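Pilot study result, target chain (261 residues):
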Amino acid sequence: MELRREYTVDTLAELASSDQREIRVLDVFSGPGGVGFALRELFTAPGVNGWFCGVDETDYAERYPGEFRHLDARDLTLEALGLDEPVDLVWLSPPCQAYARPSHVHYDDPKAVFPTFEDLGVRDLTRLGREYVIENVVGCDDLRDPVELNGVAFGERYVYRRLFETSFDLPEWSVRADPEQETVPMDSVGEKEYARVKGTHFATEWDKTEIRAAIPGKYVAYVLSHCPTLPAIEVPGGNVEYRKRGAGGGNASLGSFGGGA
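Predicted structure:
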């Protein structure tokens, strides 16, 4: 069994200091680390140089697993971040309340109540990176030609459908569960147990919204392994075989990543 590397807050701060490691990925609307924990695992793999930085209007500096900037996305510029040029990738996880299905139960027009991509300047933020990813919930109609990922395609017991718009080619990786296949809906086990089921064990002490937003590490690894500006990042098992097998057939390649169930 492979042992995971554990880091203290002081050690993480030292690893992430800008004079030691170049920031290569910006994790914007980061929350406490719903994507950041997967980035930490990827960026501490052998042969992967650089680091990542979370950005959020709420101060998660004590919780985020890497370097962190406490900034409102609407004020975000390279200068404000202390960067001279765009990073290799900007990952954007804007709030989903304007698009999520439960919002439509309580509001006739959730977009009039909650911030949209336009309100948050999401399209402008893509310029912070040479490549970009925008992820959100199924039902988000502000995404352009997104692809869907779900847990069943990765051989997992959770479904957790999520949409991704990318500036680079990303094959869809989503399949319908067989009628006999047992899946675990979050409502049947509770938020904390569901965090464990989808491999986001680090989120078990987070609040309900944060747990729901935590992205399985397998999704993050899959997306970043296709990013042309991050060629050293690979999914366990190797990129070539994984891509060759096609959606729904390469589950074993990601079996060891992201904590598992």
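One observation from the pilot: DSSP finds eleven helices and seven strands in the chain. A full batch analysis is planned for the follow-on phase.
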